[in-house]
């Protein structure tokens, strides 16, 4: 079914007659264009009442749509306008022709193949003068009667330059399950899986200690024991085993004693509760009611679970409690800033996690906006800083520019409510052809003084005026 994109009435004022171009006296209005199924239909009302022709002269007039940017054109079905004598001859021969000076309005319609360049083009009347027996009298100056254009939304993306970090503070953390013989607080590196667990800690420390760009600020260790056994003894074990791990690390690295701090949790009830909540244990809710009741002393809680639910307790003791005996560690460190763009680009390719957001932005500034490498910089930045609003906003812009609207929405959900983020949500809505929602965002952004927002609002309002689908054809009045 044909879709009417737009039919716009255009009042074309009568043009003064001139000897060089008599077709100026042809009045055109109600120019309309319909695009459907690969065809374009042109219609217009033609008033010949002011056209004066010699009785033996006529014009063959061809309506043409011509590109405003290229030499492309579409010629529609021509029509003949004749002086008095030639018009009578056409009538006797049953040839279609219109008589110059007649007062009736001609409703012209013609169809031709459609092309993309019609989005920005001109409607022209091209005429050829001829005399009796079609003797050519020469061309007539073409008359432009309208300009076709399609209102499109063209986004202007606003990237935010992140504030430079005065100090690039980072941290890395992990968990190790160092095993100890029953009731002992001495580390035996070859005991059970200790060599593997201790290697995890060493590898984490080495990853930052051996990097000349990094300065370690602090190392913290927190030890946990499991709920079985007397609480006071678990205090001794958690505290003593944490100190033993600190001593082990210091013996390897000879750190300043003030660099490493320790703390402990005698019994990891939170870890037990988290496991039970996610489990399918029989009597799970009843066990949780006991485990979460802080009015009951820890020893009494453990004893009660053991007594009231012996089967479940046996399972927990064998499969869960060992994992509650662990050491959590964290290393806080600083990364030096990179001053030259050459250095930033080198780090971008080898260790992007060491760059600040402002350094990512400086790297992107050296690249062609919209290029693959440009977009990749902002994609990498948001991977390094997944929860940062600025990183997400800039990544949303590159995603929208690349046509990945699904990713853009995901990023914008984490971009905060900065005015520029509101403006970007308007762009996303417009690219999704939701122009009403886009207008709301742009209006809000305009009130918040986003420079590009008023023009964007005007653009979507114009689209809404012409059917709101972004493909309406408009005939501009002259």
Number of helices: 15
Q: Under CATH, the topology of the largest domain is which?
A: 60s Ribosomal Protein L30, Chain: A
First CA to last CA: what distance?
Answer: 32 Å
Helix fraction by DSSP (H/I, runs of at least 4): 25-40%
Radius of gyration: 40 Å
What's the number of domains?
A: 3
The CATH superfamily of the largest domain turns out to be: OmpA-like domain
Order of helices and strands: EEEEEEHEEEEEHEHEHHHHEHHHHHHHHE
How much is the average pLDDT? 88
Report the count of strand segments: 15
Beta-strand fraction estimate: 15-25%
The CATH top-level class label of the largest domain: Alpha Beta
> What is the 3D shape?
elongated
Helix/strand/pairing class, anyone? Answer: alpha+beta
For the biggest sheet, the summary is:
7 strands, mixed
**Can you tell me the residue ranges where pLDDT is under 50 for at least 5 consecutive residues?**
1-20
Question: What CATH architecture label of the largest domain applies?
Answer: 2-Layer Sandwich
């Amino acid at each position: 079914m044909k879709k009417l994109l737009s039919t716009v009435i255009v009042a074309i004022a009568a043009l003064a007659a001139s000897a060089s171009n008599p077709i100026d006296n042809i009045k055109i209005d109600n120019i309309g264009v319909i695009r459907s199924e690969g065809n374009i239909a042109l219609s217009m009302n033609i008033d010949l009442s002011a056209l004066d022709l010699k009785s033996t002269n006529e014009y063959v007039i061809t309506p043409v749509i011509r590109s405003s940017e290229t030499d492309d054109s579409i010629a529609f079905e021509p029509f003949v306008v004749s002086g008095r004598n030639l018009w009578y001859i056409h009538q006797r021969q049953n040839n279609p022709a219109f008589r110059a000076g007649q007062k009736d309005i001609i409703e012209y319609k013609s169809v031709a193949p459609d092309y993309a360049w019609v989005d920005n083009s001109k409607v022209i009347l091209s005429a050829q003068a001829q005399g009796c027996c079609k003797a050519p009298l020469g061309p007539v100056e073409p008359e432009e009667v309208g300009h076709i254009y399609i209102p499109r939304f063209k986004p202007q993306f606003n990237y935010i330059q992140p504030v430079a970090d005065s100090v690039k503070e980072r941290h890395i953390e992990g968990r190790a399950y160092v095993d100890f013989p029953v009731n002992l607080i001495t580390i035996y590196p070859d005991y059970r899986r200790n060599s593997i667990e201790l290697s995890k800690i060493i590898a984490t420390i080495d990853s930052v200690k051996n990097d000349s760009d990094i300065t370690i600020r602090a190392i913290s260790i927190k030890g946990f024991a499991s709920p079985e056994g007397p609480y006071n003894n678990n205090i001794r074990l958690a505290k003593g085993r944490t100190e033993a791990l600190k001593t082990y690390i210091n013996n390897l690295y000879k750190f300043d004693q003030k660099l490493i701090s320790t703390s402990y949790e005698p019994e990891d009830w939170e870890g037990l509760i988290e496991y039970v909540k996610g489990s399918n244990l029989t009597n799970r809710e009843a066990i949780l009611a006991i485990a979460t009741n802080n009015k009951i002393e820890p020893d009494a809680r453990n004893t009660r679970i053991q007594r009231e639910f012996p089967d479940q307790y046996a399972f927990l003791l064998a499969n869960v409690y060992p994992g509650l005996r662990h050491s959590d560690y964290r290393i806080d460190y600083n990364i030096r800033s990179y001053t030259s763009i050459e250095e930033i680009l080198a780090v971008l390719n080898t260790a992007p996690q060491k760059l600040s957001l402002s350094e990512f932005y400086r790297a992107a500034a050296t690249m062609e906006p919209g290029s693959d490498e440009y977009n990749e910089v902002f994609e990498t930045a948001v991977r390094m800083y997944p929860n940062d609003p600025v990183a997400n906003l800039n990544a949303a812009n590159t995603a929208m520019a690349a046509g990945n609207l699904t990713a853009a929405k995901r990023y914008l959900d984490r971009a905060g409510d900065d005015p520029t983020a509101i403006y970007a949500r308007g762009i996303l809505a417009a690219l999704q052809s939701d122009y009403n929602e886009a207008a709301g965002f742009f209006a809000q952004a305009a009130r918040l003084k986003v420079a590009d927002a008023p023009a964007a609002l005007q653009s979507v309002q114009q689209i809404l005026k012409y059917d709101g689908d972004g493909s309406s054809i408009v005939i501009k009045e002259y």
